[in-house]
Design brief:
Structural class: mainly beta
Helix content: under 10%
Distance between the termini: 39 Å
Order of helices and strands: EEEEEEEHEE
CATH superfamily: Immunoglobulins
Number of strands: 9
Length: 117
Amino acid sequence: MAQYEEITIDQGTDVTITLNLTDETGAKKNLTNYTAYAKLKKNYNSDSDDTTSFTAAIPTPVTDGIVTLALTNTQTDALKNGRYVYDVELHFIDSDGNTIVERILEGRAQVTPSVTK
């Protein structure tokens, strides 16, 4: 089950979120053969035109269990103020080439309006 977290995004700013993942023993999660994905939408039923994709990266060393999510100031400037929903998934490729998807984080995002542009 994914962890739930509410986040705030300031319209017109660069946003970076760092996730520090651990395994069931509390050790840093080894993210070898993993890819991260994250999206933001106005609501769960929104179409793809209303979707903003985070740049999701797993920096080296992948054994540190870190995932970074980023939005540029251009992306956040295009967002209307208000509530959104988001989630973050990890996709793992096993030794047989199968993709295993795990949702690790989900929640609501509040986009606050910008005064200075």
